Amino acid sequence: MLNEEDARVVSVPLLALRGVNVFPQTEVRFDVERQKSILAIDTAMNEEGLIFLVNQKDPAVDLPTFKDLYTVGTVAKIKRVLKLPGEHIRILVLGQYRAKIKRKVFESPYFLCTAERIDSDVNEDSMPQAEALIRTCANLYAAYRKAHPRFPSDEFHGFERPDDPGYIADFVITQMDVKPEEAHKVLVTLDPVKRLGVVVKYLVRETEISKIEGQINEKIQTRLTKAQREQYLREQIRTIQEELGGKEDIEAESAEWRKQLKKLKLSPQTTAKIEKEIDRAEKLPPYAADLSVIRNYITTILELPWHKYSKGEIDINRAQEVLDEDHYGLEKVKERVLEYLAVLRLAKDQKSPILCLVGPPGVGKTSIARSIARSIDRQFVHMSLGGMRDEAEIRGHRRTYVGAIPGRIMSAIKECGAADPVFLFDEIDKIGSDFRGDPASALLEVLDPEQNKEFMDHFLEVPFDLSRVMFITTANTTDTIPRPLLDRMEVIEISGYTSEEKLNIAEKYLVPKQIKANGLKKKDISINKSALTELINSYTRESGVRGLEKQIANLCRKVARMIVAGDDKKHVITAKNIEDYLGNKRYHYDKILDKNEIGVSTGLAWTIVGGDTLFIETAIMPGSGQVVLTGQLGDVMQESARAAISYLRAHAADYGIEEDFHKSKDIHIHIPEGATPKDGPSAGVTMCIAVLSALTGRPVRKNVAMTGEISLRGKILPVGGIKEKVIAAHRLGVKKVLLPEDNAQDLSELPESVRESLKFVLISNVSDAVREAII
């Protein structure tokens, strides 16, 4: 159990204040801009919301340490956090109790300390003095309020608590206009009676100053001449006339609003809402702060593209021409888009689909969305979700907040001027969440065809129909997309390009684009196929063509420099002279083994940049049955290796293996390129073949590559990434590829040139693999 002293001590983030004093039982709002302080607030919000507020000794210090802080402050509860433009935030806190720093834990990346609560009770001997001070304070405070009409009319009933002078002192000082250092003196005065005495001294001083100010103003008023009074009155009349003129402007503006509203023909509920806001605007004085907020709201509503849709007729043939003109390949995406357009032409009220294009970087996910918009003559809106953490960016801010604006969705709809654009949510797999909300949850309504017909933005507070918007999202992987969000989208997988596809893309699109972008002409530079092939194989390693385009641009820039320097001959770039422009080759692909080897098998792997090959090496040594796995293998890959060895132990007699090999021999499995982490179950059959070859002394065929997960019963289970893996096998130069039987349907997705140059064998168990791979 915690003792009483431990219960009074808490570990809490510390926030250094400059010119702000927070007292217990009072609410204070202030802005925070230092990253160290923002990090402390984030930490507090992720825990119990408590933060220790301590003043700096010198407000001019930008990067304080514990030495620059007072030891006494206030432990407060964070009630609200509002993100401001830039890197600033505004927080609302409620003071809880005084505390002092007991132990300094660390001061980077934010202050963390243990704070000990300070309780200060009034002893019996001080009660008469306390009651006298309370009465004096009550009278002085009433006089102070009378001299300062800006105070609210609500009465303070704390003077009815004679046993709590400390609370009265804390409240009164927060209502007074005193210097920050004077308020801080009250904060650090721990004895409640002495604290109230300090406040009474300040009240006496301020009351006397108010009396003197009143006397001075009275003398000045009596000295005003008649002419001065008349001049003063004339100024008042002119001001009133100007205000009346502003009123007339508001009435004219509201009449124009009603005229626009009538033309829009909105729903009765929406019309009534806007009419109510217009009535409010007419009743407010022209100088009211709320008027600009209402004006901004009404203007935003009326400028939205209500019932404004694209007028272009859907032409399937033209749409296909545009898609083929802008992109090579991507047949699945094009087919799905054309199917949707065909249905939309037949059924006008068809709801737009939610497409999710998933694939590695650089394969054209974002650009295909632009082409879709161009092919159907619609506006295109791009919105990046990478790193987004604030729900208000989707739904907007409520108008109660200063500077509230609509969310980015409605703002983009307003800017494009159409209610049916092609709307791209880029990098949806990289969306985040924190104490400001969960944007992924806010997107559930947007990306649900059953709900987005009445999308409600927090700023607008009226429903807007998004059902005609064609939403497209992009992602590199579906693993990080929340399941409810993923269920609302139709996922289209875009795999990496083959070398042949990259070559076609470079010839048809990238080379002409970069020649033009770098100010060159066809007579200045020529990049032949051999050079492009060398670029693809030796200077880039990726699934897409983004890096390839950068290298082509690099070539064009070097030629441009030579031309400007006076070398105006045509530069023909080939595989033989490309190193003169780009330097040494950066990447080298694996080569097929020189001979059939014992204990070495060729596996296939999928990576974020495409397929790759793995040479799995196995060594058998006398020992005690240990299994050593090296090469930075992940947990799943290690489990696959153990499953393969367990299968061989159970079927040792079938393959002519010594039955006690697991007792008398050590097995070492290694996958080269040890600095590269590897994981996944698809190398199970490859490791099984390598171990079996090492145990039996029979070599593995060098021109056979394989992939597949293995079970303890020796079954070969299906795996993913078949297209990329087979392309890697084709690049390596193997002649035969072993694939799981259940992956037969994936062969139809392979390029025809790859299918014709390889022999595919579908295997269902380890025996099939042994028959094809081991000599």
Overall description:
The protein has 26 helices and 24 strands. The model has no long low-confidence stretch (mean pLDDT 84). With 775 residues, it is an alpha/beta fold.
Features:
single chain; 775 residues; alpha/beta; five-stranded mixed beta barrel; 26 helices; extended
**Radius of gyration, whole Å:** 38 Å
User: What global shape is seen?
Assistant: extended
| End-to-end gap | 71 Å
Structural class of the helix and strand makeup? alpha/beta
What profile does the largest beta sheet have?
7 strands, mixed
Helicity, in percent?
40-55%
Q: What's the number of helices? A: 26
How much of the sequence is in beta strands?
15-25%
- The neighbouring-strand order within the major sheet is 18-19-17-16-20-23-24
Mean pLDDT: 84
What is the strand tally?
24
Spans of at least 5 consecutive residues with low confidence: none
What's this entry about, in short?
The protein is of the alpha/beta class and 775 residues long. The strands form 6 sheets. The chain has a 7-stranded mixed β-sheet. Strands 1-3-4-5-6 form a 5-stranded mixed barrel. The protein has a 5-stranded parallel β-sheet with strand order 8-9-12-7-13, sandwiched between helices.
Give the SSE map.
Elements: H1 4-7, E1 9-17, E2 27-32, H2 35-45, E3 50-55, E4 72-83, E5 89-106, E6 111-117, H3 127-147, H4 165-175, H5 180-188, H6 192-222, H7 226-264, H8 268-283, H9 289-303, H10 316-326, H11 331-346, E7 354-358, H12 365-375, E8 380-384, H13 392-395, H14 408-416, E9 422-426, H15 439-446, E10 455-456, E11 463-464, E12 470-475, H16 483-487, E13 490-493, H17 499-517, E14 525-527, H18 529-539, H19 546-564, E15 571-573, H20 578-582, E16 600-607, E17 610-622, E18 627-630, H21 635-650, H22 661-664, E19 665-670, H23 684-696, E20 704-706, E21 709-710, E22 716-717, H24 722-732, E23 736-740, H25 752-757, E24 759-763, H26 766-773
Helix pairs in contact: 3-6, 4-6, 7-8, 8-9, 10-11, 10-12, 17-18, 17-19, 21-23
